[in-house]
TrEMBL record:
HAMAP family according to UniProt: DNApol_IV (MF_01113)
Family stated for the protein in its record: Belongs to the DNA polymerase type-Y family.
InterPro entries per UniProt: DNA/RNA_pol_sf, DNA_pol_Y-fam_lit_finger_sf, DNA_pol_Y-fam_little_finger, DNA_polymerase-Y, DNApol_IV, PolY_HhH_motif, Rev_trsase/Diguanyl_cyclase, UmuC
Keywords carried by this UniProt record: Cytoplasm, DNA damage, DNA repair, DNA replication, DNA-binding, DNA-directed DNA polymerase, Magnesium, Metal-binding, Mutator protein, Nucleotidyltransferase, Transferase
Subunit: Monomer.
Enzyme superclass (EC): transferase
Cellular localization per UniProt: Cytoplasm
Organism encoding this protein: Novosphingobium barchaimii LL02
Domain of life where this protein originates: Bacteria
Record's function text: Poorly processive, error-prone DNA polymerase involved in untargeted mutagenesis. Copies undamaged DNA at stalled replication forks, which arise in vivo from mismatched or misaligned primer ends. These misaligned primers can be extended by PolIV. Exhibits no 3'-5' exonuclease (proofreading) activity. May be involved in translesional synthesis, in conjunction with the beta clamp from PolIII.
GO BP: any one term: DNA-templated DNA replication
Gene Ontology MF, one: damaged DNA binding
Protein name: DNA polymerase IV
Amino acid sequence: MTDSVIRKIIHVDMDAFFASVEQRDNPSLRGKPVAVGHGAARGVVAAASYEARKFGVKSALPSVTARRRCPELIFVPPRFEVYKEVSRQIHEVFARYTDLIQPLSLDEAYLDVTANKAGIETAWKTAKAIRAAILEETGLTASAGISYNKFLAKLASDHRKPNGQFAVTPDMGAAWVETLPVSRFHGVGPVTADKMKGLGIETGADLRAKSLEFLQQHFRSSAEWYYAIARGIDHRPVNPNRVRKSSGSETTFDRDLTDATEIEAGILKMADDVWAWCDSRQAFGRTVTVKIKYGDFQQITRSRSQPSVIVSQENLRRSAVDLVRTVLPPAKGIRLVGVTVSNFAEAAAPEHEAVETELPIFAECQAA
């Protein structure tokens, strides 16, 4: 793609995906506040229906807090195999309109429709056709953002949710960004947003007013990204072969653990979950990281890189246990443990490269 060609990029985002699938498959849940997740004391919300969101229920919210905000909330156990199958159907729809598809998760993706594979007059009409096909074939609604780059397309898809679409044209991109709060920008998390607020940066206009030197002083390696997006600039292409950089699994215990045997058993279970993913994708890494969260929510990690990739389950298990033993016996109760493998071999065969179409491995995990 040359710089002289204006890209036509669509960001498609399913509406309350997990919860919508549950409401589709169980009519008694329709119109009711639904949370996908485990309603146990230490569970968390994986997804919430729009009816639940009106009460402030959202993903990653502790189940106890969610119930407090919405006493009528209905918890439904997650069915990830079902969600993956629906996601496969959705991606089949995408493939009719473009060969350039970059999945971000099971329920959202970037599509580059510049080449106009389907022969539709505009990107706007293409987005409408995609959303209509998804609705007809899955019974689910999707929202879409259309623009000339990925950053703006993603922002735009959230602008008319649910079941809508919004376009940001080249002549309006920079000015539109200036009107938005920086907390909505992809790449600006809550901590960064608070830091920006302390520096007098609350909107895109505020961000644009800052010099690159100022941003480098306060945000280091992220400065150029912030400087560019404040001007509606994003040159990243839609990359259909984006390789997943890590695979991890974590679990929250029913109670804070101090017994080394129980803690190691949790680590081994997470290592086995991660190995199952690595083995199925033939994607192997050199670095193992163990995550530990204590009962008071203090969090630490321990990592170790090996000279060569880990190609056996036993090696991964041993590495993970060795790392967790560096903090055993614990000085206080542990509520969560996790295992991640990263630093994947670059020489993996293309058919085994893992694009980011999978959720993190949940198994019985309840991420805190």
